[in-house]
Sequence to fold (534 residues):
Amino acid sequence: MFRNFAPNRRQVLRGTGGVVLSSCLFEAAGEAHAFAGVSNDELGPQVPFSFDDVTRQAEELAKKPYEEPTVPSPGVLAEITYDEYQRIRYLADKSLRLDRDGHYPVQLFHLGKYATHPVRIHVVEGTAAREVIYSPKLFDIPEDSPARKLSAGTGFAGFRVMADDLKTDWFAAMGASYFRTSGPFNQYGLSARGIAIDTAMPKPEEFPRFTHYWLEGPHEAQGPLTIYGLLEGPSVTGAYRMRTERSTNAKGIARIVMDIEARLFARQDIDRIGIAPFSSMFWYGEANRKQATDWHPEIHDSDGLAILTGTGERIWRPLNNPPRVMTSVFVDRDVKGFGLLQRDREFGHYLDDGIFYERRPSVWVEPLDPWGEGAVQLVEIQTTDETFDNIVAYWAPKDDFKSGQRRTWRYRLSWLDEIPFPEGIARAIGTWTGLGGRPGQERPADVRKFVIDFEGKAFEGLGRNDGVELIVDASHGIASGVYNHPVVDQKQRWRAIFDIKAIGAGPVDLRVFLRKDKQALTETWIYQYFPNET
Fold:
């Protein structure tokens, strides 16, 4: 669940090229045009290939005991420290070209101290595939680099898909089953995973890994890049197909859409499986500024969890940096979508001109088949800096996943600026907290004030006296000073204000929305308040 970087995370994330280590915790007939730049001695023989072949491999592996991956030349890899790693560059003219138009150039990651488990990379051409064999000739390696001690065939740490000019990348897969994209504004942030096993359980979390990737260019012009992966871990194996496309609108805002099919095989009984998981970082924001020890006004890769329930309710849950590990469970049936979003896009709210938190991607999951009963689970872990990914979200199916069983999950994963939102429902755009009570009077120590701003066309034509109601529900405690009004001189913006006096121990779960004539005007704002603990 954590990603702890040996180098400073701020250094690593400063540019898109920094993805080299930012993911580290977490892999035909005729002459093949896809292999441009790679010589024949750097390729294995042609072998038949299909997604069903990967599926059969996963199924057979699930019947055998798990074997820990072998680390090649561990002493040599230990010498390839962060600084040494930065001296190694994949050669541009060795880039794999996965389509005839050159829109999907791929470069490979070298192994090193923080990326020790080799991944086998294959390129698909028609109904056959060839493995790319590690060779130092694929990289620009200084003469005095310890990497020169590695043997041919050692393997790679992962791969990345480059922009056409080969100066930046927009997709990267490296370590365990982690992958990420540069999102709408060419800036990396949160990470996705192939699977999550036993997250936030009393026992250690399991991190299955992609041991093989097969990369296939489009069969037609402007088609998708298809990434196949073979997943293996102590409790599960899997075959993955990820059809991936990147598009850019007239404003230069990109969107990466991945249609994913995961065919999973349980090797052992699994207590908790997380489908479509992703990990992010939330240190502090506008609602918990008192937790800050850094000078930046806010620091987070994501600021909230959004859910579109099976019944059509839209939920917004601002993220927390809790005093202890907390798992929030949102029970649902046939959930329509969920994701971790970065809604706050104002530079002035972060003031970071090095790694640009306002440019972080949002990620949205849409099931392509009914997922049945289960829950979106949000795991939040206390952090005191920006080094760790302390936020995890995923879908946890209700049905057990027992040894010998097979399951298939299909979903669309979109990396985007903002999720589609109906005009008839307003969004929560800001959450603030402060002292309860009224200015000029003694402030009660056990009362906290909450202020939430909503924005949207749902408020068009509405004024203070038009019957807009603020609904506040608290799991325990007393709400007072409940009030709402349109924000002065701010078009389509409405403010909700209330005080909460906690009664009893434990966090207070709050549920808030605005309505008129029994019709919801806003999404449902849900929050977890920790009186006297934050």
Observations:
- The chain is about 5% helix and 40% strand.
- Helices lie at 9-13, 19-22, 51-62, 74-79, 82-86.
